[in-house]
């Protein structure tokens, strides 16, 4: 087995695929009740062991007869037969049929002995104890012969069939209430890192704690691939604890996945456990993201170590691990999981290894798909939802040109391009307007950066607040006004009255970042104040404590005030009221939704324009007005 | 509401869609744990209520510094800073940074107060209590600022988002361990008909009992559409029992579906219950199959009555009910659920109403999709698995021409054409050979009918046993020999010796149908016997009791013998041994797999040819040999 080991520095991705294929993840088959069989994969062929139907069955309401007794009958010259009984569905016929006789029969009922055809009731009439038959029937007419749907002994469903409603229908007809199916591979997930906290628990940011993203993300990916995920407690950097956890998972599962920490020491501990208690086949794959992948065996289980950053972990999981889980579960590769589009921008590479580039999709007004790179750094969890799939870029590729056709491996087959790609200023009214749209995507990059991106022709629209420097040709779709100013603690304990207080008094202030429209409005107001005072803008801003630092979210300054970390923050009246703080008004700024002129006919942009014209979201937001 | 009632004889399908849309199936939203949220649909927008990350975070291993202290540093002229502490991931930094100071920091750790950049460890070296920095860093370098991934207050996910692994990743990052999702509509299923038996229970065929196909099939369809299925006990034709069951289901569910019986009396009882305890909006839709559809309300629940035959019930469910369930569950219409292909044969219509024609897919050697009608009668459950979708044929269409392009609405988006379409003689060796193929479909229509269909160019191959009359140009792919004869009770109590016993003694015989190769071999052997005896073939066959009747499956005659219903049956040595019966040999017949000459290059046909050349299935089948 040691010839499977691959310890050269970084192995080719194909070698990693082969190493994972060499592991055995397939669990034992199991038997499940029919009611739980949907989506499962048959472990073996199912042959019929009874006839369907199990008897010669009338397919219409009418009269069971011997066909030869009706020969020559027609409208002009009916045949009259003696009525000797009745049989309904679910009853056993109590009389056979003799020459010249008929039995009244319901759809689905058993044919009486010696009857071989049924005359539809519409072609008959009753005459006392006799029935007049106005058509001839041949033996077999209106009868479903025993076994004609499925005959006992016939092959009903083959091994590997993924059971849908239709297959379940056939299994029901065969009377099967339980079926042998492929087992779902059990995948143990061990997240590592002392800084991880489970969602729902209390987070201590001062200690650098973060929520564990990989456990639930990978668990969902495992289930999507047809496996069963088992979450184990977090492991820290302690060797004994890690060993105990990994061996417990290996004992209970078909595959153990570790992930979660980016810390070198935790990875090092895992490495040692797998080396000592199992076998490490391979570490390090020439792919970005995901270089530090481990592949090996631990006890009777397979083992794969995923990188720590969520986007890297999920990308490596999808590329290397999910296909192996599907294979073990007997599931086919998902269909139509690829979208073809043209690069919306030029993108440079010089990686020397396979690059799995997260990519977003956007459609132009003709419905053509454009592809743009989503590169927020592997540490960003928002890349997960801002990308639709990955483009595999060859190690030798130096750049992808604008307009070049690429294939995007979608994160799932039902991924569709958003109906609208918007960028720019984050805003509570905007959030509500987006809620009314079909499938929008909004990237809160701020007004300045939003306008820059719009000029690159990737997004459909930019949401721009406050004064702007940049002159970009756009089509205005509508907008609103919002009241901005200083957010101070409830009751305004420092009696802050306006911007002058920030300059003239020693107050701790929290600003927004430079891309924010709010910041641009603040700069403009301070500029006016500088003029008034005959001072320079720099003089003023230097005397504001905290002016240079910027925060990322529109609520961030107010939240810092709410936490008692600052005396005043830049923000909106709406935010102050939402958080129970006091608002000191400074001004009113415009927020405009500006469209890429090439996209105004796109359905998603029209939908946005119509929504902007009709929405009443401003009524419930303090300091807001349509404009 | 009475203007919604539609009691004209047969309403337009659009009217039925509108009537179902007018019903309210949408359940209340609910909150589910994150671990169960995959595939669910967000009921409301989720805003971030914390920053991600919650602190300024080092993105590399190295030294936290004040960027301005490194200005001008390079390889030739490093800057030396005092090392004042260490901070790992998951720890709270215990020292701030002063001028000219640095703190050792791990990836993911909290930046110490007043530090604004990190120098990668690779660009430094330790010198006792000091660190030599050989590069300049700007404020923000190698730091992920608090809230830069997601800022508190930002819109994270919109209402209507169907949660995938990626969304679950983002929710994890926000610390959410439970999410508000759209409720899954609860769909009650009431099967009706005294003749129905649940799979797994004992079936009394003499009474015309059949297994309940619709309950599990429709339940699986409900789950595929995002609903939750609840099965209720069967209802017979009794008014009070039906009323009690339907009202119980209406009380507990958002929608009640009845189905199962084809009996007019059960439908009549349901009709009365809905009229008296609810409101019937519509009955009878101009669509085939499915004319007898009911739409109404029952208590606070919606009600739809499906036709009784399984294929009709599932087709009507998919066409009219599943979209309403998806809508109520907040799920989008499934993508790519349509395949386009050319009609393989000409098909006539003169329906006067919308026809939902079950259709199968087959690919030709160029990979082009051909579409053929699957019409086994609505009562056949095998139509469920022999069709891949339906073609909606307009009421005015008189025929679909061979070669005409049609759209097939696939039964599910992941339906794919079988890799091989085989027809002809059913055979136990064939069943095993099919098990080895990727995605075969086999229709056991018998040798004669199989050859006829092959000449129509729909199937890829026909499996043909025994002598054939028809001369069809085919390519032989391989085959085997099988020993056939008479299957008699264990121990051969009547001391049957051969065909002569059937003619000369009064034995009850069970034959195969005329399409079976076994029957053709029997006819040939009897013909030889007639020549020997100087008699006509008709003389001989007339003296065999049961000769004219034919059974549907290759095991059927032997099974009749096993049940004690006959003294001898036409069959195979392999069947006799499988069922524990005695075999009286008569002859050996060839089974050949014959391909449509146009399809020999098709991958599925090549796979079959290779399997035929290699298989060893004959070794374990008595009376079999490769030929």
Automatic annotation (TrEMBL), chains A, B:
It comes from the Archaea. One of its GO terms (biological process) is Mo-molybdopterin cofactor biosynthetic process. This is Molybdopterin biosynthesis protein. It comes from Halobellus rubicundus. InterPro entries: MoaB/Mog-like_dom_sf (IPR036425), MoaB/Mog_dom (IPR001453), MoCF_biosynth_CS (IPR008284), MoeA-like (IPR038987), MoeA_C_domain_IV (IPR005111), MoeA_C_domain_IV_sf (IPR036688), MoeA_linker/N (IPR005110), MoeA_linker/N_sf (IPR036135). Residues 188-327 form the MoaB/Mog domain. Pathway: Cofactor biosynthesis; molybdopterin biosynthesis. It holds the Pfam family MoeA_N. Keywords: Molybdenum cofactor biosynthesis. SMART domains: MoCF_biosynth (SM00852). Transmembrane segments: none annotated. Gene3D superfamilies: MoaB/Mog-like domain, MoeA, C-terminal, domain IV, Molybdopterin biosynthesis moea protein, domain 2, Molybdopterin biosynthesis moea protein, domain 3.
């Amino acid at each position: 087995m040691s010839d499977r080991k691959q310890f050269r520095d970084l192995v080719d991705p194909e070698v990693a695929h082969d190493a994972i294929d060499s592991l055995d993840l397939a669990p034992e088959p199991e038997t499940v009740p029919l009611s739980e069989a949907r989506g499962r994969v048959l472990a073996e062929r199912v042959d019929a062991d009874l006839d369907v139907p199990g008897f010669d069955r009338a397919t219409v309401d009418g009269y069971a007869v011997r066909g030869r007794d009706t020969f020559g009958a027609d409208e002009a010259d009916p045949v009259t037969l003696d009525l000797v009984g009745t049989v309904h569905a679910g009853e056993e016929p109590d009389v056979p049929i003799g020459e010249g006789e008929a039995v009244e029969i319901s759809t689905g009922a058993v044919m009486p002995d010696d009857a071989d055809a049924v005359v539809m009731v519409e072609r008959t009439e009753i005459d006392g104890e006799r029935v007049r038959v106005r058509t001839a029937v041949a033996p077999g007419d209106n009868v479903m012969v025993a076994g004609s749907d499925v005959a006992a002994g016939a092959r009903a469903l083959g091994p590997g069939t993924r059971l849908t409603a239709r297959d379940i229908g056939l299994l029901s007809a065969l009377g099967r209430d339980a079926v042998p199916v492929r087992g779902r591979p059990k995948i143990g997930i061990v997240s590592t890192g002392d800084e991880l906290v489970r969602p729902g628990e209390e987070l201590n940011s001062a200690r650098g704690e973060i929520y564990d993203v990989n456990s639930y993300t990978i668990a969902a990916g495992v289930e999507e691939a047809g496996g069963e995920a088992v979450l184990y407690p977090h492991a820290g950097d302690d060797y004994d604890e890690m060993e105990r956890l990994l061996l417990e998972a290996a004992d209970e599962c078909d595959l153990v996945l570790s992930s979660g920490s980016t810390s070198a020491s935790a990875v090092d501990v895992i490495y040692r456990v797998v080396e000592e208690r199992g076998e490490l086949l391979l570490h390090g794959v020439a792919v970005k993201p995901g270089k530090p992948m481990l592949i090996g065996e631990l006890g009777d289980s397979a083992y794969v170590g995923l990188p720590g950053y969520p986007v890297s972990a999920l990308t490596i999981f999808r590329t290397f691990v999910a296909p192996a889980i599907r294979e073990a579960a007997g599931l086919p590769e998902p269909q139509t999981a690829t979208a073809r589009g043209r690069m919306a921008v030029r993108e440079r590479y010089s990686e020397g290894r396979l690059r799995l580039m997260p990519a977003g999709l956007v459609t132009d007004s003709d419905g053509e798909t454009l592809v743009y790179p989503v590169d927020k750094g592997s540490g960003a969890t928002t890349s997960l939802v801002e990308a639709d799939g990955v483009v595999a870029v060859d190690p030798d590729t130096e750049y992808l040109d604008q307009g070049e056709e690429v294939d995007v491996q979608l994160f799932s087959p039902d991924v569709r391009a958003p109906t609208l790609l918007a960028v720019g200023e984050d805003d509570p009214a905007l959030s509500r307007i987006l809620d009314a749209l079909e499938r929008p995507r909004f990237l809160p990059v701020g007004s300045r950066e939003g306008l820059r991106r719009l000029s690159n022709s990737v997004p459909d629209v930019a949401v721009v607040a406050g004064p702007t420097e940049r002159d970009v040709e756009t089509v205005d779709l509508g907008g609103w006004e919002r009241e901005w100013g200083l957010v101070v603690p409830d009751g305004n304990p420092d009696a802050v009255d306006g911007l002058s207080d920030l300059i003239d008094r020693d107050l701790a202030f929290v600003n927004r970042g430079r891309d924010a429209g709010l910041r641009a409005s603040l700069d403009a107001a301070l500029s006016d104040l500088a003029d008034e005072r005959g001072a320079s803008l720099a003089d003023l801003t230097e005397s504001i404590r905290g002016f240079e630092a910027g925060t990322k979210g529109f609520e961030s300054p107010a939240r810092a005030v709410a936490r008692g970390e600052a005396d005043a923050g830049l923000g909106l009246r709406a935010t102050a009221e939402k958080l129970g703080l006091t608002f000191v008004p400074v001004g009113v700024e415009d927020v405009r939704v500006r469209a890429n002129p090439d996209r105004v006919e796109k359905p998603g942009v029209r939908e946005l324009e119509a929504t902007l014209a009709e929405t009443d979201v401003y009524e419930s937001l303090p300091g807001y007005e349509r404009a």
